[in-house]
Amino acid sequence: MKRVMALMGASLLLLTLVASAGAQTRLAVEVGSLVPTGNFSNAVDASPWFGARIEYQPSNPLGQVANLGLYVRGAYSDLQNSSMLASQILGMNRDDSTSYVEGGVGARVYSIVLPFFLSAEANYARLDTGVDSQNAFSPSIGLGLNFGLAGVFVEAEARGHAFMGDGDTLNFLTFNVAAGLPF
């Protein structure tokens, strides 16, 4: 976990240092819901989702902000255990504290004409069931809508995740709204 935090810190520093006058760097905070799918939905109910992201969009040769953004993001969810099936699927009790934490790097491609974007992300994640915990690679892809509102960027995004843990892949969706400030 210390390596991941060091990597994210170094990436954040790199994004900040390479920002040029025509480029755009922004900090965003997101809030939403984690919705489990497949077997994961038998053990966990829809749960709150919180995250933060710093994004860098370089300028193109014309001095305009490019339609490709690179970012570093971290997120957390306090998972809501749903039933006794949770003990069979994830080895946890209904009363156990269960959490999901991820940190990663990604890229976004913004539409030139429409206010949509696509995102792809590579994450290092930790699922803690209160009884056991595991770390795994957790890629995600997403589709979102963004618009400016009085100097603040507002976004809505749906993202699909795959937690590739020991012997089983847990799939879930996140739906979030984010607000970001350029700097």
Number of helices: 3
- How much β-strand is present in the residues? over 45%
**Count of domains:** 1
Rg on CA atoms, Å: 17 Å
Describe it.
With 183 residues, the chain is mainly beta. The protein has a single domain, classed as Beta Barrel (Porin). Helix content is 14%, strand content 59%. The protein has 3 helices and 10 strands, in the order αβαβββαββββββ. The protein has helices spanning 2-17, 40-43, 85-89; strands spanning 24-36, 44-45, 47-57, 68-81, 98-110, 116-128, 133-137, 140-149, 152-164, 169-182. It has an 8-stranded antiparallel barrel with strand order 1-3-4-5-6-8-9-10. Strand 6 and strand 7 (133-137) form a beta hairpin. It starts with a helix and ends with a strand. Residues 15-21 have low confidence and may be disordered.
Highlighted features:
mainly beta; Porin; 8-stranded antiparallel β-barrel; 10 strands
Question: Outline of this structure?
Answer:
The chain is mainly beta and 183 residues long. It has helices at residues 2-17, 40-43, 85-89; strands spanning 24-36, 44-45, 47-57, 68-81, 98-110, 116-128, 133-137, 140-149, 152-164, 169-182.
